[in-house]
Amino acid sequence: MSAGQHDESSNSILKIALNLAMACFVSGLIIAGVHFVTADAAAQKAEELKMDSMKALVQDVEKFEPVEGKEDWYKAVKDGKTIAYIVPSSSKGFEGHMQLLVAVTSDGTVLNYDIISHKETPGLGDKANEEPFKSQIIGKKADGLEVVKDPSDKEHVQAMTGATISSRAATTAVAKAVEEVVHFTGGK
Amino acid sequence: MRELWSIFSKGILLENPIFVLALSLCPALAVTSSVMTSLTMGLTVLFVITANNVSISIVKNFVNPKVRLPVYIVSIATIVTVSQLVLQAYFPLLYKALGIYLALVVVFAIILARAEVFASKNNVVRSFCDGLGMGAGFAIAMVIIGGIREIFGSGTFLGINIMPASYDAPLILILPAGAFILIGYLIGGVKIIVQRIEKAKA
User: Are B120 and B68 within 8 A, CB to CB?
Assistant: First the structure.
């Protein structure tokens, strides 16, 4: 420090700026280098992970095929027949967006769903991706996908205590996916 | 050796980041509603703070003191980004669990504070021990807070039910306000212990 006070030039704004710029440059080089090495592996893993998460949604399936004309839609095929559509959906949660992958049969019944990304409260809202909330949604059609707070009402979805907004967000996203699939297939 | 041990161990109790320094209270409120998330966050911080302390103590002589803080932040951000890239490519499941925490770690006060207070003035080995101790102290504090909140707020421990079914969990413990109150009591408790230790020494 004391050396710097005697030597004016070492504290010139240019030197300081260069110092910071160098640090950022080195950091950029490191990140670019790592990215160069890992990018391919990451893309491949992401694809595998997506396939795995789809397999978890629909059991005994032969393969997944992209649906023509619909971005990011997949159909699950078994014995040459389409048994389910896997559709991305999203809605507004308690904090920010909630993104889901929903598996819907062609007649509009929910097979399963998975919340891929969310910003819900840990320990409260994030239970929307777990039992017992999940099994309330599975097997329902569009008319049952509504959140209620009346425990005796078995036709609809019970809100989770302390997380009504998250419950509603998940249910809305699933309902949206069901609606889109029914619109696409004509409900058959 | 003895000196290194005291550098390490002070982070755990006498200068515990959360209970004594009261730094990084934000994650201590936000992600401690269950033991698992607290532990994950604690270990993430342990890794980043140690790596950052080491890298800062290596480059400290090349950094102009006037831009040291931006350089420290660049260093933390680089470490976090590199870990994200590596995890994404080789351990995608771990990345899925850690992803949101890693990005948050960049702005934690405790990591910047250790770079400024310790790593910029000490050699690599000492900085490594300091990072390890502070990180461990942070992780332990997080797990204590997370444990209390999960047991009494949800009636579970690591997701397993341990309270009788009739236990009516107070919702406030799960919410950030409850965590704030709890941390206040814990800080008070740790203060008493620290004072006892110091009295015994004197």
Answer: yes
What distance in Å separates residue A81's CA from the closest CA in chain B? 32
- The answer to whether the CB atoms of B88 and A162 lie below 8 A apart is no
Domain that holds residue A13: 2-53
**A65 and A49 part of one domain:** no
A140 and A111 within one domain: yes
Q: Residue B67 is which amino acid? A: V
A32 to chain B: nearest residue by CA? B82
pLDDT tens column, B182-202: 999 999 999 999 889 889 887
Q: How far apart are CA B143 and CA B163, in angstroms?
A: 19
Average pLDDT over residues B128-132: 93
Same domain assignment for residues A49 and A64: no
Residues of B in contact with A129 (CB under 8 A): none
Distance CA A153, CA A164 (A): 16
Instruction: Tell me whether A48 touches chain B (CB under 8 Å).
Output: yes
pLDDT, tens only, A78-103: 777 777 888 888 888 888 888 888 88
Same domain, A14 and A74: no
